[in-house]
Please model this.
Amino acid sequence: MSQPPRGLLGRIAAGAVSFTVLTYVIAIGIGLGLVTAGQFAGQLQNIRVHFFIGAFFIYPIITPIPVDLLLLTDACIVIYIACFITAFRSRDGFLTGLQRLRQAGQISFRSSWLIAMPLVSCALLLMVLVATIVLNQSGLSSGTLCNPCPPEAELYAALAYSPISEEIAFRITILGLLIAIITTWKNRSIEPGSSKPRTLSLVVASFLSPESAKEKVGLPTITANRWQGIHWSEWILLFLTSSLFGIAHVISGGTDWGIGKAFTAAISGFALGLIYLAYGAYAAVLLHWFFDFYFETFSVGADIFGGPVATLPGLVSLATVIVGIVSILVGLAWLVRRLTSGKIPTTYKPPESVPYSVQ
Model:
């Protein structure tokens, strides 16, 4: 059976990446429009909450002073913009990575996360949807986010904030602490005369960019060593945090998720953990943003603005499914070619993926 030309796969994947990134920009623009729209912004401003600022080993930390949801949502959007700028500039850069993807039909761990994210996120969503259907047919319903749901503005603020708070709770504080311990211990064995990073900068890097922290002390990294760049203790914690992430979705208050959600959220949690270790906190936050804030922004924007914006939720959902299928197909093409020729010639190298939370 003939195989698709590398250039064709590259052009298809590059087009899918470019279009999806454009929808990310549109989503951020709609989000900015929502927090400045008079009536909706007023609803956000009128709700004040003591909000969840993360957890250390799943221990919740709540702000002592209430903050209005408009300020909270504004802060979240600013953080997301900063994450996108970081993703655009990361590794080889977005434009260089896109050109390589189109011409050579290949991405790697050295590619910008903004190149990998559209393929990874859409494929992951498609797999989660298929798993959800199978579980529902087996009698393990995933339920719904909330029934009944709170006011639209309150739910929107919660979904704007949950990617940040949940990544702090389940990835950054737990996996980050493990990386900090490993790298600090390794740093102690470095000879004083050698280039030895400062302990404080090493600890900060461990929480924000595990790959960077490992590289500073000479430990194997995922970028250079692929799966060998993940320590056995990291694998254990990956499975543990993923399981806790799935269970938390079912037992957390304010949601109406069923037992099936524990399985699908655990799958997503494992992918989020891998992305955190491979790329850093900003990448995990953005992948989580895709599942929570991205789709909710189009839905709320359609209700508030109407007109052409009202057509976007359906178009974005359809495009996501198509990109997910494309991503899985080129992933299979990569696997077939690697098995038959021992080479890696194609577009997709998997990065070997609040009162209300959604995943």
Observations:
- The chain has one domain: 6-341.
- The beta strands are 48-49, 52-56, 59-62, 67-68, 143-144, 256-257.
- Residues 122 and 324 are 4 Å apart (CA to CA).
- The first helix runs from residue 6 to 34.
